[in-house]
């Protein structure tokens, strides 16, 4: 079993219930680790130590009375900075919001508290949650515990780094463009992007926003697949208004053992070339599965044009975030879009057009999305899951120069736009599908590689179950060196 700070939240909760460790004692263990290791990582950027200690003492008293608050009773937790927590600022990395202290918790925060966690802090994010790195002018740069010169991912980068380094027990992130999935991949932890709409995001939004955003979801992160199950159970289910009319009933996995699964494997795509080191780890996983008598196909795909999927995803992604523009920015972007050559299909051009597109054009993109959604549904009648990369490379070196769409990463010895790899976020996310990222090995340089496990709409439990089987039979969480 792993050393205490690196154990799963489920194992930590079990140790508490068996009185192998007290709630306050466990909290102090993590706080000491934050004090020791966080200065080099800058993953945890805000804390409420007095409030956390008070709650941990109350958890110990409740346990003495045999009053268990929930499945995560006493487990220390941090949460992504974008979630509202009373007493802590919610800034999304935006300097103008540095003094934004919300009056109430996000719904997911209250649900985690109801499950018994001891919430003690928040983790780092990029500006507006809009980068595969996690840096901002308020809190600075979060670093990857496997190599502090590299990104831990974004926008849930601080969350993934804190988990990997053993600074917290469980986490929660959000994902519109792989913001749960790429940090899990880069840091060697687990992350689950739920089916769209099953986990209400109220309170994980910019101030004054109530309407859920298109594509965007909130979801759990942890050091085991079981933690994803616990986290999703806490987060999922209708909000107060919707709960008057519907209940969430995610189907149980149809398979029990690995050999019963039928999976497709996708290693790369023309829209986002994947580095050979990442492909190699996913191919090794596919070979292992085949030896375990899993039915594996490297050719089966949904009948979806991947170029169209990428085009429509960027349209709807940038439309979903376009409401952040001021009136002046909108007018400026409208003029930029008007001046674009008709044949310009660069990311920048697609972004500019989507930022200002008409509702009629949005409806056309949405129609295209739903046609793809039905193609995915047909695919999942034959295959249980699709396995693919979460990103085009392992964690890349920090690069904060210029605009995000101007930056590049190295893939197979040449530079490519960082935005290309949004394909691995949108191919499934566009169609509302769930996916789990689980550890799948390491590059020759020792950087983590994760596999993205995509399932049918509402097939969240199957994705997590498959990750759990891989954890048991292939590879689980491995702590980075130097954090013992």
Structure description:
With 484 residues, this protein is of the alpha+beta class. Helices cover 36% and strands 14% of the residues. It has 14 helices and 15 strands. The longest helix is centred in the last third of the chain and has 21 residues, at 359-379. The radius of gyration is 21 Å and the shape is globular. The model has no long low-confidence stretch (mean pLDDT 98).
Arithmetic mean pLDDT: 98
What spatial form do the alpha-carbon principal axes imply? Answer: globular
**Rg from Cα:** 21 Å
Q: Kindly name the structural category.
A: alpha+beta
The parts where pLDDT drops under 50 for at least 5 residues are none
Looking across the biggest beta sheet, what order are the strands in?
6-8-7-14-15-11-9-10
Number of strands: 15
Helix content: 25-40%
The arrangement of helices and strands along the chain is HHEHEHEEEHEHEEHEHEHHHHEEEHEEH
Biggest sheet overview: 8 strands, mixed
**How much of the residues is beta strand, in percent?**
5-15%
End-to-end distance: 14 Å
Q: Enumerate how many helices there are, as a single number.
A: 14
């Amino acid at each position: 079993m792993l050393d205490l700070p690196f154990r799963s939240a489920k194992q930590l909760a079990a140790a508490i219930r068996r009185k192998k460790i007290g709630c306050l004692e466990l909290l102090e263990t993590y706080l000491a680790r934050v004090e020791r290791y966080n200065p080099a990582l800058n993953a945890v950027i805000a804390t409420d130590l007095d409030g956390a200690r008070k709650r941990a003492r109350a958890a110990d008293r409740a346990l003495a009375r045999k009053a268990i608050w929930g499945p995560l009773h006493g487990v220390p937790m941090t949460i992504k900075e974008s979630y509202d927590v009373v007493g802590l600022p919610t800034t999304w990395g935006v300097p103008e919001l540095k003094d934004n202290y919300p009056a109430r918790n996000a719904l997911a925060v209250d649900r985690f508290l109801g499950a018994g966690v001891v919430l003690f802090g928040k983790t780092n994010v990029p500006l507006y949650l809009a980068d595969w790195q996690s840096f901002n002018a308020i809190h600075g740069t979060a670093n990857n515990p496997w190599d502090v010169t590299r990104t831990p991912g974004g926008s849930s980068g601080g969350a993934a780094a804190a988990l990997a380094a053993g600074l917290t027990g469980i986490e929660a992130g959000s994902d519109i463009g792989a913001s749960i999935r790429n940090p899990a991949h880069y840091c060697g932890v687990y992350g689950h992007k739920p089916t769209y709409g099953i986990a209400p995001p109220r309170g994980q939004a910019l101030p004054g926003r109530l309407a859920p955003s298109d594509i965007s979801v909130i979801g759990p992160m942890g050091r085991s697949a079981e933690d994803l199950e616990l986290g999703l159970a806490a987060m999922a289910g209708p909000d107060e208004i919707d709960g008057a009319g519907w209940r969430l009933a995610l189907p149980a996995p149809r398979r029990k053992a690995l050999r019963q699964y039928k999976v497709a494997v996708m290693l790369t795509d023309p829209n986002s070339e994947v580095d050979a080191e990442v492909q190699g780890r996913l191919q090794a996983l596919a070979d292992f599965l085949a030896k375990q008598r899993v039915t594996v196909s490297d050719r089966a795909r949904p009948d979806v044009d991947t170029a169209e999927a990428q085009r429509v995803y960027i349209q709807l992604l940038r439309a979903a975030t376009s409401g952040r523009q001021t009136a002046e920015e909108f007018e400026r972007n409208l003029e930029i879009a008007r001046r674009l050559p008709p044949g310009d299909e660069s990311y920048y051009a697609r972004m500019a057009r989507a930022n200002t597109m008409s509702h009629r054009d949005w409806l056309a993109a949405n129609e295209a999305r739903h046609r793809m959604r039905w193609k995915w549904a047909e695919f999942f009648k034959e295959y249980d899951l699709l396995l693919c990369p979460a990103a085009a490379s392992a964690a890349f070196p920090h690069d904060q120069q210029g605009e995000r769409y101007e930056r590049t990463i190295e893939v197979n010895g040449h530079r490519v736009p960082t935005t290309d790899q949004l394909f691995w976020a949108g191919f499934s996310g566009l169609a509302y599908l769930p996916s789990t990222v689980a550890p799948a090995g390491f590059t020759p340089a020792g950087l983590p590689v994760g596999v993205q496990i995509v399932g049918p709409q509402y097939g969240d439990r199957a994705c997590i179950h498959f990750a759990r089987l891989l954890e048991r039979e292939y590879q689980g969480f491995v702590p980075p060196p130097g954090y013992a």
